[in-house]
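Recap from last week: sequence in, structure out.
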Amino acid sequence: MISENNGIFRLKTNNTEYIFRTAKYGHLEHVYYGDQLFCEDIDALTVKHTAQAGSTISYDREDPLYSLDTMCFEWSGIGKGDYRFSPCEIKMPDEGFVTDFVYKDFCIKPGSIPMVNMPCAKGSDEDSASLSIRLKDKACDVYLTLVYTVYEATNILTRRVILENRDLKPLTIRRLLSMQLDMPNTGFNLTTFDGDWAKEAFRHDRRLQYGMFINESRTGSSSNKHNPGFLLYEDGATEEHGRVYGFNLIYSGNHFGFAELNSHDLVRVGHGISPHCFEWTLNTGEKFETPEAVMTFSSRGFSSLSENFHSFVNNHIIPKDWQGKERPILYNSWEPCFFKYNQRKLLKLAGMSKKLGMELFVLDDGWFEGRNDDKAGLGDYTVNKHKFPHGLKSFAKKIKKLGLDFGLWFEPEMMNENSNLYRAHPDYAVRLQGRESTLGRNQLVLDLCNPDVREYIVENVTKILDETGASYVKWDMNRHISEFGSLHISSAGRFFHSYILGLYDVLRRIFEPRPHILLESCSSGGNRFDLGMLCFSPQIWTSDNTDPMVRLNIQGGLSYLYPQSTMGAHVSDSPHQQTLRDTPLSTRYNVACFGCLGYEMDLRFLSHAERQEVKEQIAFFKEHRKTFQYGTFQRLNSYKDNKTIWLSCNDDEALIGFFQTMAGVSEGPDELRIPRLESDAFYRVSTKAQKLYIKRFGGLVKHILPLTLNPDGFILKMANRFYTLTDCIETYDCSGKALASGVMLSNQFMGSYYNDKTRLLGDFGSNLYILQKI
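Predicted structure tokens:
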């Protein structure tokens, strides 16, 4: 709900309230953002300015107390006494950089306001409302419109700005962010999600101190280095308690988020397009619209904040045809095959995957002419006749005949120099005249600023999709942008944003007419995991790293901002190609099932026991898929550093993942605490059965056998292929109050004893627990 009364604006969701007002001289003064209030005395909430601070500039000569540097605003410019970082830097029509935007008028309307060239959140007249406030610069005929949209049920507020030049002279934007939020410092800490290839989105925390912290990408995409989402939280906040603010951006290009603490203990937060090499001229009558920023708040800790974000993504970001729809269990050919395959090998793997219960076969890289390694072929779409003598259409038909859906990998934004496309159109590459192009993964970036390039991609991708009847696409992008420039834009300062607009144009033209196709975005893993891509792509390949111990950090980090239904997560062979770590098959599955489950392993070399385990895993996942992918996700607190505990629940059940990184020696008891249950209701908690392989015990088996056998010998190796033990299974019936206090689990192996009531986790071990109301 949005209301205005005497210049006071209130934006309410189910649990939060956002208040600002028109200040004395027409600036928009921020008043409050937090839990819903019943307070009508707005003056009680505002930051006071009853005394003049030293070294401040008075905005008005007759009013020494009105200093912009000591006030909280919705938007602040440059050159009028506010020395904090401004969300805008504009060379105005008068050739100066001073901006002073003041209130002009406003409009409230039901629903969300769509954007023309960029993706944005979608709301109906029943679940959202929008406020547009128009500001005008005092000296130039330039207007700034602040657009707010409230999504009541998800406790989300989105913001963006539209700059319009009505002056007779042009202006040049050097920086224009999507939002600004000022508020008093109440002991804030900053959380960002950072990393690189194979280690995306690790959580990092630091206390907010005087100065400014920047969370930025300059790679041409939202990047694996710094995800656009970040959090501010007060001291003492936990998963279940404390005040937390969250911020994200519906954009896939270079982003810029900042949190600044000034000398008057005021915090300023901003978010938007990175100003890195950005320059955009607006002539008379032209407008520029920023991407949509996303904000939320919770006074009940990180888990409730994540619940806000998750509900918002599932209901207002994901394409409508895929909202709430269970994702298929897929088999991907990449790790088991790389480029080395033929049709016979693939059909054998597809047949095995079908027998195990998988639903979708994905043909990854290597299917087009010349693509036998990563040095050639990108940019071409002619099918490799050696691998597919009768073409992809025939191969896809064979896959479907097995009872599987067919999916296909593309990397449409790239080309190799050794390709027919490059030989015919070297001008299609992003490059600068007079400079040698640098390569990433032996490839160049295609110039999506060029309409001919976009047409080439759309024509070729859609032709293959329609011919094969593919129901899934993995869209890859395997390098950062280095040299940047295009003959199809007026200046290099427009390149990065124009590239992203070109990408959105291509995605819109391919997939909006084909809403049945499940698009999984990928960029060397999670190099472009953002809300902009999720507007087209219901799920994203989270990371090329399939090691479950690293995935605990990657998926765990992303879970603060994005729901499980968006995270591609695969079970792969072990030792893992990215870390050489050897992990149990059960743990690989237990982590991957908190997402969009897939398998990426050579099924031909699984033992009989392993195949049986995979089959049981898939059957269990199908039974509980809705809960895993759409349940309310929580990161449960553990008082042990070597434990990670996840929970996903709906009205009928909860699924708990209990993960151990490194085993302790003769470790003390483990506790399972499950919050948010009905205190007086009774529940049953039971362990999902999983297999223990004999090889995990090594030489210890001699203590339970009547004779000594070589642990690496033929007999035990054969036994390991067909025979397994069942890990400890526990069942407890107790009240919600008892579960919130903590259930003590059975002992782990302590080095000297084993029975069926001892949990045998060891390094990298895990268990799944099912909770159901009795």
